[in-house]
């Protein structure tokens, strides 16, 4: 937003101050390179890859199968490049394919996180807050784990965060090229998930306000119109280019995609607060409750405080938040946080599996929280505030390390961690990623050339694809009546124990079992 011109020496100093973020980025990349092989394949990953494969065939071979493909409405902005990478590297084995996908997904996430660092640094001009932003976004336990095996929600979060950074730069510099870049970033984010379209009415409203304000004060209106046009051109152009299904009929296929997003039909059940619900009959507090119990405690408090503070200040001085001022950023974050929640409520969107469908609202929530933290750091208790958030990072970090690689089942201390409480009240490893470690355990402790496994859950088969070729041949899937050697479960849609006498192996997080292996015959 508008700021006074800065001397060249200040600009040079400001750019040189990126080094803490660069160090955090490099360290995070090293950590990712060391651990990306330890995360399993999620329930949705093969289907997501299928979208990329069908789109690749459409683009390269002219295969119109994509137009009748059931998942054609899913965005391909990230899946298509992943499939191109797979072909470019000549990856044939399923283990190599999915490990490469995990690594690239994670690295793109870290790129988005670094943009979050730059955004916080530009907003607050404070290295502590900028580094805090990096660590809060990068190492939220659930999101960190998902950054390896979730190639739709996490890339969308990353692209959305890049768009937020470019929005701050564009409105602050007020130059044509930045509004074109802003549109390109927003269009690409929307090509990953159609929900990105919410950026158009929000940013479009700000641009219209700037145009009308120029008219009111008798300033030149052409620059404002130019900025709006460049934003729309960049947005629509990038959306069209990066989503091939739109090439033949952009209006029809995008409308279809958005309609399907708002009317997802899912007939499964979820466990919430100890009760079983159908996926399309969840209580109103499903998402708020999940958000509240899976957010680091101090961040949750600060975020709620930031939302309250911005709302109150906006009501007192709406012009300051609507015109091109630094305060407009926080109004943008408030809209990006609350808008999707309101939209899902209005359109009755299905939001299963904690709040992963709207993980992209998390960076906006972090910026609102840091708004409060920044105010507190300006008071007398600066050291106390810094110590409190460092302690929060340490506590969260201990969980991440202690429960590696199962951070996707993180719960804060606002919910009980008593023995098996979480398992009996909430879906834990709902995507079955921990099956990788379960299969590895069986293979390590059973030297048989053929091992028969019985399961009732598809992700077990997915995770066999991560095994080396020789190990894959040892696994055979059998029915309950075929005298299998083992039964393996993560208790999804079945929270109670099974009536098998011998428990061979458990994986527990926060005193609740997320995976169990029974020895049968």
Low-confidence stretches: 1-12
Task: Please give the share of residues in helix.
Answer: 55-70%
**% residues in beta strands:** 5-15%
Distinct helical segment count: 22
End-to-end span in angstroms? 68 Å
- What integer value in Å does the Rg equal? 24 Å
Tally of domains:
2
Describe the main β-sheet briefly.
5 strands, mixed
Residue-averaged pLDDT: 91
Order of helices and strands: HHHHHHHHHHHHEEHHHHHHHHEHHEEEE
> Would you count the extended β strands for me?
7
Shape: globular
Please give the order of strands in the largest beta sheet.
4-3-5-7-6
Decide which structural class fits the backbone: alpha/beta
Write up this protein.
The chain is α/β, with parallel strands linked by helices and 521 residues long. The protein has 2 domains: 26-402, no CATH class; 425-519, no CATH class. It has 22 helices and 7 strands. The strands form 2 sheets. Strands 4-3-5-7-6 form a 5-stranded mixed β-sheet. A two-stranded antiparallel ribbon has the order 1-2. It is globular, with a radius of gyration of 24 Å.
């Amino acid at each position: 937003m508008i700021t006074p011109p800065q001397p060249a020496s200040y600009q040079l100093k400001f750019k040189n101050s990126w080094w803490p973020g660069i160090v955090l980025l490099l360290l995070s990349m090293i950590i990712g390179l060391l651990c990306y092989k330890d995360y399993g394949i999620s329930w949705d990953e093969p289907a997501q890859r299928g979208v990329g494969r069908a789109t690749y065939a459409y683009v390269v071979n002219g295969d119109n199968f994509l137009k009748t493909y059931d998942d054609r409405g899913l965005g391909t902005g990230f899946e298509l490049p992943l499939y191109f990478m797979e072909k470019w590297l000549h990856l044939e084995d399923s283990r190599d394919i999915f490990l490469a996908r995990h690594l690239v997904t994670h690295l793109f996430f870290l790129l988005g996180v670094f943009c979050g660092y730059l955004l916080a640094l530009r907003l607050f001009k404070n290295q502590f807050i900028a580094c805090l932003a990096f660590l809060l976004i990068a190492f939220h336990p659930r999101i960190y784990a998902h950054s390896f095996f979730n190639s739709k929600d996490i890339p969308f979060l990353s692209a959305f965060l890049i768009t937020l950074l470019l929005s701050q730069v564009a409105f602050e510099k007020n130059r044509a090229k930045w509004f074109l870049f802003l549109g390109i970033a927003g269009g690409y984010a929307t090509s990953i998930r159609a929900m990105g379209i919410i950026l158009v009415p929000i940013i479009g409203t700000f641009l219209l306000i700037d145009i009308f304000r120029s008219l009111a004060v008798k300033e030149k209106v052409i620059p404002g119109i130019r900025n709006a046009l460049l934003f729309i051109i960049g947005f629509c152009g990038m959306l069209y280019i990066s989503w091939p299904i739109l090439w033949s009929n952009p209006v029809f296929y995008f409308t279809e995609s958005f309609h399907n997003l708002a009317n997802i039909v899912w007939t499964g059940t979820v466990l919430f607060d100890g009760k079983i619900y159908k996926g399309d009959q969840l209580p109103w507090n499903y998402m708020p409750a999940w958000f509240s119990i899976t957010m680091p405690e101090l961040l949750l408090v600060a975020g709620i405080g930031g939302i309250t503070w911005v709302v109150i200040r906006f009501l007192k001085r709406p012009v300051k938040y609507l015109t091109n001022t630094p305060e407009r950023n926080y109004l943008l974050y408030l809209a990006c946080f609350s808008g999707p929640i309101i939209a899902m409520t209005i359109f009755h969107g299905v939001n299963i599996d904690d709040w992963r469908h709207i993980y992209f609202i998390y960076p906006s929530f972090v910026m609102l929280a840091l708004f409060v933290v920044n105010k507190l750091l300006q008071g007398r208790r600066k050291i106390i505030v810094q110590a409190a958030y460092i302690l929060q990072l340490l506590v969260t970090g201990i969980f991440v390390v202690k429960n590696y690689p199962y951070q996707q089942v993180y719960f804060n201390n606002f919910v009980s961690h008593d023995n098996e409480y979480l398992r009996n009240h909430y879906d834990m490893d709902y995507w079955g990623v921990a099956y990788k470690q379960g299969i590895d355990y069986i293979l390590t402790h059973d030297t048989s050339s053929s091992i028969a496994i019985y399961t009732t859950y598809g992700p077990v088969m997915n995770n066999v694809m991560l095994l080396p070729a020789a190990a894959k041949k040892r696994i055979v899937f059998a029915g309950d009546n075929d005298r299998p050697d083992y039964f393996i479960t993560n208790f999804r849609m079945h929270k109670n124990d099974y009536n098998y006498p011998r428990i061979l192996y458990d994986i527990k997080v926060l005193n609740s079992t997320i995976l169990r292996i029974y020895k049968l015959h």
